[in-house]
Design a protein that fits this description.
The protein folds into 2 domains: 156 residues, D-Maltodextrin-Binding Protein, domain 2 (3-Layer(aba) Sandwich), CATH 3.40.190; 119 residues, 3-Layer(aba) Sandwich (D-Maltodextrin-Binding Protein, domain 2). Helix 5 links the parallel strand 3 and strand 4. Helices cover 43% and strands 19% of the residues. It has 11 helices and 8 strands. It is α+β, with helices and mostly antiparallel strands.
């Protein structure tokens, strides 16, 4: 796990774990390797995962950003997806006692108080960082961006009043939904109105064209695992597909109010999508490096 406990990676892993164990017929141990802008977990898998006995729940474009914006000893191509499990649309969330009733009001205040409104982000290489930077550019404002070690600590900071705003995933932030509300959804259309307070999209609120912003969670192995042990990779791929299609997993998603996040894509198919998007991710990373 490339983050601390409590965030979206942890939630995704814990929901999948019993169903992966059932499909594989062996117990799975969850190990947290947070820090380093998601790089420590990836480095650990690269070092220990050549035989396919270790896997990692990571996300795109976070894995890309972790090497494009930092000096690390890997690239995303050193890994291979077993499958993409779900999607979590980016949202702008504030506390219930916030003075802003809309994203427009937040932007108006940010113009009046440049650099003073604190925004908590799960990490410098987190997709939420790109999302809030895009809002800054589109609206011509500057926030005081504070980085945390994963989504759990970032949303805890919002709930505790350490920051006033966070840009995070709609499902990732459900644990703080009772004490907070969504101002805008960073997608072309809000298809998740039931969990986002019926908020408008960022584009609608800003009257501007913005890129979709979302978190996609996948299971990954090393490229060495995929290339040198295709039979082991195939077992993992079949187990993941069986797990996400199992009645128990679907029921767990439904019970958690996260059924709308399910978006399973097989590993080979998802790799083709990533190859097509790699230049776009590199351009995004360049914009982050310019800040």
């Amino acid at each position: 796990m490339p983050t601390a406990a409590g965030g979206g990676f942890d939630r995704t892993t814990r929901m999948l774990q019993p169903h992966m164990e059932a499909a594989l017929g062996v117990p799975l141990e969850v190990v947290y390797r947070g820090g380093g802008g998601f790089a420590i977990g990836a480095t650990t898998l690269l070092r220990e995962g050549a035989d396919c006995h270790n896997v990692m729940i990571h996300g795109t474009p976070l894995l890309h950003f972790s090497h494009l914006t930092q000096n690390v000893r890997y690239t995303w191509d050193d890994f291979f997806p077993v499958g993409s499990v779900n999607i979590d649309p980016g949202v702008v969330r504030v506390r219930n006692d916030s003075p802003w009733r809309s994203l427009e009001e937040l932007i108006e205040d940010a113009h009046a108080r440049p650099g003073q409104i604190r925004v908590g982000i799960a990490g410098r290489t987190d997709v939420g960082h790109f999302g809030i930077r895009e809002i800054e550019r589109a609206a011509g404002v500057d926030f005081n961006i504070i980085f945390y070690d994963g989504g759990g600590p970032a949303r805890t900071a919002l709930a505790g009043g350490e920051v006033e705003v966070t840009h995070t995933g709609a499902y990732n932030s459900l644990p703080v939904a009772e004490e907070s509300r969504v101002l805008a959804v960073h997608q072309p259309e809000n298809l998740w109105k039931d969990i986002t307070d019926g908020a408008p999209t960022v584009g609608q609120a800003l009257s501007a064209e913005v890129q979709p912003n979302d978190f996609r969670y996948q299971m990954w192995v090393t490229r060495a695992c995929r290339d040198n042990h295709p039979e082991h990779y195939a077992v993992l791929a079949e187990a993941l597909e069986s797990a996400v299609e199992s009645p128990g997993y679907l029921a767990a998603l439904e019970s958690a109010g996260e059924f709308g996040s399910l978006d399973y894509i097989p590993g080979d198919e998802y790799m083709e999508m990533l190859l097509a998007q790699s230049e776009e991710f590199e351009a995004i990373a360049l914009s982050l490096n310019d800040r």
